[in-house]
Automatic annotation (TrEMBL):
PANTHER family, per the entry: CYTOCHROME P450 71B11-RELATED, EUPATOLIDE SYNTHASE
Transmembrane segments: 71-90
CDD domains: CYP71-like
Protein name: 4-hydroxyphenylacetaldehyde oxime monooxygenase
Record organism: Triticum turgidum subsp. durum
Family: Belongs to the cytochrome P450 family.
Entry membrane topology: Single-pass membrane protein
Principal location class: membrane
Amino acid sequence: MATDFQPAIIETPKKPTAVSINPCMHKNARHTRSYSAMPLPLHFINPLRLRLRIHRSAMAISLLVQLPQPWHFLLLLAGLLLAVVSYLLVTRRDPEERGLRLPPGPSGVPVLGNLHQLGPLPHRSLRDLAGRHGPVMLLRLGAARAVLVSSASAARDVMRAHDADCCSRPASPGPARLSYGRKSVAFSPYGAYWPDMRRLLAAELVGARGVSAAWAARREQVDRLMSALRNAVVPVALDEHVFRVADGIIGTVAYGSVYGAEAFARKYERFQHVLFEATDMSASFSAEDFFPNAAGRLVDRLVGVVARRERIFRDLDGFFEEMLEHHQDPARPKPESGSGDLVDALVGLCEKHGFTTEHVKAVLVDAFLGGIDTSSVTILWAMSELMRKPRALKTAQEEIRAAVGGNGNGNRVQPDDLPKLAYLKMVVKETLRLHPPATLLLPRETLRRVEIGGYEVPAGTRVLVNAWAVGREPASWGPDAEEFEPERFEAGGRHGKVVFRGAHMELVPFGAGRRICPGLAMGVANVEYTLANMLCGFEWAVPEGEEVSMEEAGALNFHRKTPLVLVPTPYAPPACEC
């Protein structure tokens, strides 16, 4: 979707493709893969497949013309049925809304509601709409009711004052299938199961075993990155290099050393392809998300979305099953207590708490689809901003090299050095403010009627928090809210005590309250450690005659539209003058 809503692309189930609604985005490299579930209740096209989809669309139209006449009639009937039923539902006033002081919002159109107003960069389009209608805004997404929050004060109502009443997740067919019936921490509705599983996952990620395994993986992957950059032909497209670091860390923590082993190479390539398809599926429009169940499911089935979803799920499940069999092989040496990988820990928890293998697989979906792109996207945005601010780049490098000079490890940053790097932490914080990994946080759903920003919101309403708009709100950040200024977080300054761990609603890149990201600490450590070593070990420059583009593109996580191409020169410390 560029400015107008695009009609559904209809193909035969033999080679189904998703219904694209965003054909204007460009894809670069594998880095742009996104692993969080959708930050708003709308799926977008994965840009990597744009040209292929355009070609397939033409083929689909040709195939449609060749369909027997009964198929023409059935497809036409299904389309008319969806339009009529959706129109009735969109225009019908929900009984729960009667007598309530609902938030204001833009006028919609029949059937679509406000879907056509989201645009290719919905976080920007929605901020513009909020500028006209207010920071708490009512939207009609097809037949679904949603409230958009675009200010720190309104976010406080959602994630603190009424967190217990706004902490469930709306059902969505794609994520529900991928998460084994909403068994993952990210997609599970609020209930007795969710807090128990979240506590167990957080304990494994930030407990002693998880922390130790993560640091070992970080050292290994960053060593490989530094070696690759030293031996690369310049200029270097950083996207693929940075993505491999994040992927390697998550994979090693989850599966152990087998993830990077030579014997795993063929399976690794297949797994990457399956993950790519799973992300592509999550980034595709599903009629059932916004329209009546019967009509939406019928359309999804006719255009091949359901068949494609099932095939991708089987492929992903097959890989997870292989890894579980490997870990449960009687011939495999049993890891010592507390020394296994994430799968070992989860298998042990299953035996202890009565969980099934589906619970293990659902948590692995959380780890891979939620953990990889968050780190790589943030590192690339941080490098982009620093290249446009030479003063900030120099300050960060001088601080890091001064700290590293006395650690006895040459030009390598060690975990113990990170607490000393105050300016680097300000750079990361400012990057997360301007470029949150998920510009719109995963949608919440109200369990009961609540008041947000002085307006009444009925139970069963989707609540979207525009973290990107909140992080750029002039009321919180001042007239320079759009500028990259790490110094704003200096100790003693106006924002010196602001943190992104859920305590301050003006900075919520990972959410807050009960639904805050459980892997926050691990992801931030990945970013800080990787970025610190890149800045310490190399001098960085933009290729002569070029500029760093800051254009965005994406589906779930909004990344750079074009690859970040830079010239790294290995740093040589000045000779000691004695």
